[in-house]
Task: inverse folding
């Protein structure tokens, strides 16, 4: 029915292997943050002062979910300005892993 030459069979096998590798890497990148950084590095041009950013601006950065952004602003309103960036860990939804990501984006004066 399908009579392929040996060269055509090699090309088809090569394309199938490449497709399988691409699908596998894509799924791994979606599941593992470290691999995701390798394939889609984010360019950071400037850091943001956490004490001066508004809720709308924080949401627009798209580095945090909306609920976490709201919690950060609420924490700042209740407790005053952040004295250091490590105080950010006291906000619900920000653990050590997320803090490591955020300390590259935000700073506190």
Result:
């Amino acid at each position: 029915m399908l009579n392929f030459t040996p060269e055509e069979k090699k090309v088809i096998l090569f394309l199938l292997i490449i497709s399988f590798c691409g699908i596998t890497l894509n799924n791994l990148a979606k599941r593992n943050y470290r691999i995701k950084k390798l394939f889609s590095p984010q360019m950071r041009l400037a850091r943001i002062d956490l004490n001066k950013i508004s809720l709308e601006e924080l949401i627009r950065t798209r580095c945090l979910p909306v609920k976490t952004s709201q919690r950060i602003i609420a924490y700042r309103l209740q407790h005053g300005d952040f004295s250091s960036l490590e105080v950010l860990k006291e906000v619900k939804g920000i653990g050590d892993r997320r803090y490591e990501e955020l300390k590259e984006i935000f700073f506190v004066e």
Summary: The chain has a mean pLDDT of 85. The two ends are 73 Å apart (CA to CA).
